[in-house]
Design a protein that fits this description.
Helix content: 25-40%
Shape: globular
Number of domains: 1
Strand content: 15-25%
Low-confidence stretches: none
Largest sheet: 4 strands, mixed
CATH superfamily: Glycogen Phosphorylase B
Distance between the termini: 37 Å
CATH topology: Rossmann fold
Mean pLDDT: 90
Radius of gyration: 17 Å
Structural class: alpha/beta
CATH architecture: 3-Layer(aba) Sandwich
CATH class: Alpha Beta
Length: 253
């Protein structure tokens, strides 16, 4: 599978930022395509063991970690047998999107939040990349807004050309509700077909800033972000995006 801009950004941005003197930690789903043996993943028992309830069903949260020695950086993988033990990522072998991708994004984002708390790590900037992270701004600003680990965190959402084609199920809005999130906070999900555009605009609503991370981002998303008075960083070439991203982060804190 050819590498996308999202994959490249997720791989190189944390290292570029860390090389400039900032502590970074990366979280991603432990998709079945991630080879545990080759990447030397191991479960972190002290972080695992929690159950996350989605649609009245308990789903065990398993945390695995791998180290990138040359960058002195750790990558944390959010795992669960029900959601991520599949050969592919978001598409099945026939190229069809998994029906439960909506629940998978809920589990991933909530899993990251709980893992950060267990690590007792207080991030200044939470940079969300790709639609799988689109619920993070909502959860951080509504459910975790008074939590000491997140109350002062700024949320940045990166816009890419990545998108899902099949709308999420109508039950999605009810499944994502947690303490602190009210019906009015997700009215866009209640009143519209939950497609990629609706989910992206929800992410923008609750982010502090937006980054144009692909050259051909949907112009409507950028217009929407500016209409919501969000700070926007225009697309940066790969030669200097590390420096420019750090300047952008610093401007927020």
């Amino acid at each position: 599978m050819p590498e996308s801009e999202l994959a490249n950004m997720g791989r190189y941005l944390p290292q570029a930022v860390q090389e400039l003197g900032y502590e970074t930690r990366t979280f991603m789903p432990k998709f079945g395509a991630v080879n545990e043996r080759r990447n030397q993943l191991h479960e972190v028992i002290r972080l695992s063991g929690m159950n996350l309830i989605i649609d009245d069903t308990d789903h065990p949260l398993i945390i695995k970690v791998a180290s990138i020695q040359v960058a002195r950086m750790q990558v944390y993988f959010i795992d669960n047998d029900d959601y991520f033990r599949r050969e592919n990522t978001t598409l099945d072998k026939n190229g069809e999107e998994y029906e439960d991708n909506d629940e998978r994004t809920i589990f991933f984002v909530r899993g990251v939040m709980e893992t950060v708390k267990k690590l007792r790590w207080t991030p200044d900037i939470i940079h969300c990349q790709g639609w799988m992270t689109a619920l993070a701004p909502l959860y951080i600003k509504k459910t975790y807004n008074d939590d000491p680990f997140f109350k002062n965190s700024k949320v940045v959402y990166s816009l890419f050309n990545d998108q899902f084609k099949t709308p999420f199920r109508k039950s999605f809005a009810d499944k994502l509700l947690l303490e602190g999130i009210k019906e009015k906070d997700v009215v866009s999900l209640k009143e519209n077909t939950i497609d990629h555009a609706v989910l992206t605009k929800l992410a923008i609503d609750y982010s502090d800033a937006v980054i144009e991370s692909s050259q051909n981002v949907n112009a409507d998303f950028l217009k929407y972000a500016k209409s919501k008075k969000k700070k926007v960083l225009a697309y940066q070439s790969k030669e200097n995006y590390g420096d420019e991203f750090v300047k952008f982060y610093d401007s927020l804190v």
